[in-house]
Amino acid sequence: MASQGRRGGVSLPDRPSNSSSVLAKISRSSIVVRGKEAAGDAAFVAKKLLRSTGKAAWIAGTTFLVLVVPLIVEMDREQQLNDLELQQASLLGTPAPK
Amino acid sequence: MATTVLPPPPPPPAAVETVVDFFNLPCPIPFEELHREAMMSLKPDLFEGMRFDFTKMLNQKFTLNHSVLMGPTEIPSQSTETIKIPTAQYEFGSTFIDHPRLLLWGRILTDGRLNARVKCDLSENLTFKANAQLTNEPHMSHGMFNFDYKGKDYRSQFQLGNGALLGASYIQSVTQHLSLGGEVFWAGQHRKSGIGYAARYNTEKMVATGQVASTGMVLLSYVQKVSEKVSLASEFMCNYLSRDVTASFGYDYILRQCRLRGKVDSNGCVAAFLEERLNMGLNFILSAELDHRKKDYKFGFGLTVGE
């Protein structure tokens, strides 16, 4: 990389080639390579995690929609019916059942 | 469960708090209806598409039945993907009940299938039942005759079917709550025979049943009646030979205006069945079944008129 920079930048002063070589050195250093790998892995895991979480949320949501929502609606209706009956009973003066 | 099936030696009467009156035990329920409560909660007749049922009572004894079902039906295939073709069928049926001695029941579908049932009380204790399923396809028709004998604290049944099928079952009340039973069958056409045992324990609050058979089937069920309106059911089914295991859990709400049943099972299948009473003799049905594993979603709605 450094030799290439020197060959290509004949008219250029030494500074950019110098800095690029520093950059290259940095980018070639093991810590950066390791970091890049780690970042790649993290991104992969995060993507997978996100996808599986989404799937789980989807399954949980649809299950909830099928199993629990009708139950809530029907319980509410039953409660309303009971209340209405109680109200009517108290209005008519007859003792409420139960 | 096999250990509980073996009749335990009767405990000395002094050991138990309430002395069991062994000569005055209740009659057990029939062997084939052993899992009745669990089946009622966990196996509603789910359907896909639209259905319309109309029942007309002509007189006290005679009832006519019309039913239309439209929707996709699954056709069995080797591949894992389910193939569905849209179908529509009409079913005509009639029922004759001479209560409580005689019952005649018949259903015929537009594709040529016919179901017929006869139930007849020959004497006070002996009941004769016949069941026939006829189709156009060869070798798919079935016929079955049952003789049930109901004793004071036991029931026995003898079965005779086509394809040289013979079967017998016996169930006996052992204590006030516990009943034990067994069955044997022999299918001559398939050269198979088997033996099975079952136990059932029921109180007012709960019902627990267990059944094992030499075909490798183990079935355990438990139903808890939480209150008058609510019952919770669970079932564990396992086939030792084919290695499939299913556990399911369900609820059953019987409210004033509706009945709602829901279940989840270990195959990733979620189902709910709602019967809503709109008016006297007018019921609205909603059925939903989600199979997350197969990505097979079935929804249905229907109307039941009459009764």
TrEMBL record, chain A:
Residues annotated as transmembrane: 56-73
Keyword Transmembrane helix: yes
UniProt keyword terms in alphabetical order: Membrane, Transmembrane, Transmembrane helix
Stretches the record annotates as Disordered: 1-21
Transmembrane helix recorded as keyword: yes
Name of this chain's protein: Uncharacterized protein
Phylogenetic lineage: Eukaryota, Viridiplantae, Streptophyta, Embryophyta, Tracheophyta
From TrEMBL, chain B:
Main localization (coarse): mitochondrion
Keyword flag Iron-sulfur: no
Biological process according to GO: monoatomic ion transport; protein import into mitochondrial matrix
Family assignment from sequence similarity: Belongs to the Tom40 family.
Protein name stated in the entry: Mitochondrial import receptor subunit TOM40-1-like protein
InterPro entries: Porin_dom_sf (IPR023614), Porin_Euk/Tom40 (IPR027246), Tom40 (IPR037930)
Membrane topology (UniProt): Multi-pass membrane protein
Gene3D superfamilies: Porin
Organism, as annotated: Phaseolus vulgaris (Kidney bean)
Entry GO CC: mitochondrial outer membrane; pore complex
CDD domains in the cross-refs: Porin3_Tom40 (cd07305)
Keywords for the protein's UniProt record, in alphabetical order: Acetylation, Ion transport, Membrane, Mitochondrion, Mitochondrion outer membrane, Porin, Protein transport, Transmembrane, Transmembrane beta strand, Transport
Localisation per UniProt entry: Mitochondrion outer membrane
Aminoacyl-tRNA synthetase found in the keyword field: no
Function according to Swiss-Prot or TrEMBL: Central component of the receptor complex responsible for the recognition and translocation of cytosolically synthesized mitochondrial preproteins. Together with TOM22 functions as the transit peptide receptor at the surface of the mitochondrion outer membrane and facilitates the movement of preproteins into the translocation pore. Directly involved in the pore formation.
Molecular function GO terms recorded: porin activity; protein transmembrane transporter activity
